[in-house]
Amino acid sequence: MGTGRARLAASILDADFANLGYEVRRVVKAGADRIHLDVMDGHFVPNLTFGPKAIKALRRVTGVPFDAHLMISEPGRYIDQFLDAGCDSVTVHVEIEEPIEPTLRAIRAAGRAAGLALKPATPLSALEPYRELLDIVMVMTVEPGFGSQSFMRDAAQKILPARDLLRHKAFGGEVHVDGGVNRETAEIAGGLGADILVVGSALFTKGRNMGREIRLIKALADEGFQYQLNDGKPPIPRDNWVTFVQLPKVFARRFMNEIEAGGIPVLMLRGDGQINPDGIRDYEVKVPAMAEALTIERHAEARERYLAEAEAWRERLRAGEG
Questions:
Q1: CATH says 7-228 is which class?
Q2: Dihedral sign for Cα atoms in the order 190, 199, 287, 279
Q3: Where are the domains of the chain?
Q4: CB 219 within 8 A of CB 1
C-alpha cells in the first residue's frame, strides 16, 4: 500500500467514535497501511477507550492489518479475546506488573506478531529479557493515555538502538514510534530508522486533506531515512520483490523451503524463463528486495548448486532418462 519504506498506522483515537466504521474506511481509502487500536483501561493509563468487541465489529469493515496497543494492566487476562477479535499484532507494555512472557507466547502461538511498548522514561534494557519473543518494539514518544501530545525528541533516540533488540529476526521485525508523529516530526522518526509511524490527531485535523497528509508524512520519513541512515540513497520500497533464481518447479520448491526456514519470506511464481524438456517453464524464486543482500549472503552457494542440479536434470530428460 505504498512505494516507499515507511508505513503508517492510523490511530483512530481522535476519530469520530459515533461513526467509527466510516472513519476506518476513510483513513484506509486515504492510504493508511494499518489501523492502530489504542486500548485503555482507566487503570494502567488515566483514560478509557474500547475493547475487543468493538475491534471485532471493526474487523468486518476492512482487511488491512490491525495493530492493537494494549495500555491495560492485565493483558494476559484478555489476550484470547483480542486475538479472537482479529488483531494481526498485539503490543503490551513492559511496565505492567503481571508476567509478560506468557502473554507474548500466546500471541505468537496464535500466529500473530508480538510486541512490547515502553514509556518515554523506561530504558530499552527493560526489554532485554524478552528479546527472542519480540516481533515489534514500540517506542512511545509521549506519555501514553491521550492523543494530541507533543513529540518527545529525547525519547525518540531509543528508536535506532531498538533495532538491535530485533536482530534475531532475519526479516519482518518492526520498530514502531507512537506519539506526536506528524509532518513536523516524521523526518526525525524516519531518520532514526522507524518502520511504522503511528499517526493520530494529525490525520483528523479539520481542514487538512487526509490523503495528502499520509503521503507527506511517509515521504518525509523516507527522506529522513535516506539522508540520515542510507548515505543519500532512496530506501528500498517494502513492497518490492526481486527474483533470486529461476528453477524447475521441484527444485524451486525445495529451495524456497530452505530460504524460508531462515525467516526470509519467499514467493514462488511461474516465470517467463526457459521452457524445460518436460514442457513447463522455470519458476521464479522471489524474495523481498529489502532482504536480497541477506539472501545472497546466506544462499549464494546453494543457488549455484541448485542451478547445476537443474541443468543435470534437464540433460537427463533430453537423453530420455526421465
A1: alpha beta
A2: negative
A3: 7-228, 241-318
A4: no
Asked if pLDDT for residue 88 goes beyond 90, the answer is yes
> What is the secondary structure of 187-210 as a DSSP string?
HHHHHTT-SEEEE-GGGS-TTS-H
Q: Where are the beta strands (DSSP E) in the chain?
A: 7-11, 34-40, 66-71, 89-93, 113-118, 136-140, 174-178, 196-199, 241-247, 267-275, 281-288
pTM of the predicted structure, to 2 decimals: 0.92
Give CA angle at 264 (84, 11), nearest 5°: 40
Q: What is the pLDDT of residues 175-215, one digit of tens each?
A: 999 999 999 999 999 999 999 999 999 999 888 899 999 99
* 280 in Cβ contact with 248 (< 8 Å): yes
Alpha-carbon distances, residue 150 vs 104, 275, 299 (angstroms): 30, 59, 46
3-class secondary structure, 313: helix
Cα separation, 217 vs 221, whole angstroms: 6
**Residue 108 burial by Cβ neighbours in a 10 Å radius (0-12, 13-18, 19+):** middle
Alpha-carbon 248 to chain mean position? 32
Strand partners, 67: 36, 89
Question: pLDDT by residue (tens digit) across 234-256?
Answer: 999 999 999 999 999 999 999 99
**Strands of 241-247's sheet in order across:** 241-247, 281-288, 267-275
Nearest Cα neighbor of 218 from 242, 240, 241, 234 is: 234
The residues annotated with a catalytic role in the active site are 38, 178
Query: In the structure, what pLDDT confidence band is assigned to residue 220 with cuts at 50, 70 and 90?
Result: very high
249-260 helix and 292-318 helix, angle to the nearest 10 degrees: 160
